[in-house]
Structure prediction request, 430 residues.
Amino acid sequence: MVAHLNRKRRDPVRTRRKVKTLKINGLDVSGTDEQTILEVARENDISIPTLCTLEGLSNIGACRICLVEVEGARRLLPACATLIDEGMVVKTKTPRVVEYRRKLVELLFAEKNHYCAVCVSNGHCELQQLAEDLGVDHIRYPYVYPELNVDATHAELGVDHNRCVLCQRCVRVCDELEGAHTWDMMDRGENTRVVTDMHQNWGESKTCTECGKCVQVCPTGALFKKGSAVGELEKETEFLPYLKVMREEQ
Amino acid sequence: MEKVKIGTIWLDACSGCHMSMLDMDERLLELSERIEMVYGPLVDYKTIPENVDVFLVSGSVSTDKEMDYVKKIRENTKIVASFGDCAVTGNLPSMRNPVGTRDILQEVYSQEGNPCSQLPGMSEDTPLPRLLKRARPVHEVIEVDQFIQGCPPHADLIHLIVSELLEGRTPRRGIRTMFG
Prediction:
């Protein structure tokens, strides 16, 4: 579905980028034909909330938080995984879009066991922040309370599936930047989990290089450094775009 | 001016929300001129009073007794506020939910692996409140008019929202609040 987004860099001499113009929230904006709605919006200081997307990683539209209305499209489209087009009319803040985003965040809280008050990421969590930004003051859906485990077999790092929102940032950074592909997904629907190797203990992984990038990109406290107490875990993701450029130039 | 009747209660919670309420410090004096405390941990009423204007409910609903309390509170109150994360989300009391009531009690009360024959609040004739199958956020049990997030909610937030509630307003939007 999103194969067209994982584009290679074009040869600047042989191919010319085409400029496309469009409207976002009534504002005339433009970008090149390889840019997404999200990229163009950000260039023009139009904020669209996101969760799974991260600069330096490919865009997969996993979380749907960045859904926007595009005139002529019956469905809402993920801004991070939709390329701009000539004459497109995009709306990022309609009541329909805002309500969908709220519902999505509430469902994320309802389907796993998030206890912000005692989480290592309390105060630095992207899910918690998103809930605040969207005005989620309670969860309207019944909580599922699934019984989920914690893999603490790795010497320094751990994964708590209770806090995982399945954004797949860990999967992408491990594959695309570290080149190890230790992380992947298993099962489907409500049983979907991130796994290390072939669903083996992280501590016994043969492929993990112990670089810790997955922990840094994880938006919640699902991936954590052992020994962090409540609210102590702050994550750094600024290195990603630089690393990506350096890897590409090698 | 007639004073606004206000009640507070803590259900399955740690009392931290009430401690944070005390952190309003001298602002409590201003508030005290406008309110009449009709129920709360420091008020010696045994039953939920009638015709309450604002009720702050902290803690999750975890026992049959707490269930009776909140239903009575809803009946007798104009504006009910979920006060703090345990009331709003279930928070720490709900950590037992994935495990199950009997299993968690057994885990807590068993000694060195020996199963405990008497688990508190599990038998039919117990005088103790009986644990519900799940610790639940208040809004799953009764209708809630206002949510005050935080573990505990900051004193400034409590003051802001209580001031609004005293005016009869429920500021559901426009005030930035956060879980945790």
User: Anything to note?
Assistant: Residues 19-93 of chain A form a domain with the Ubiquitin-like (UB roll) fold (CATH 3.10.20.740).
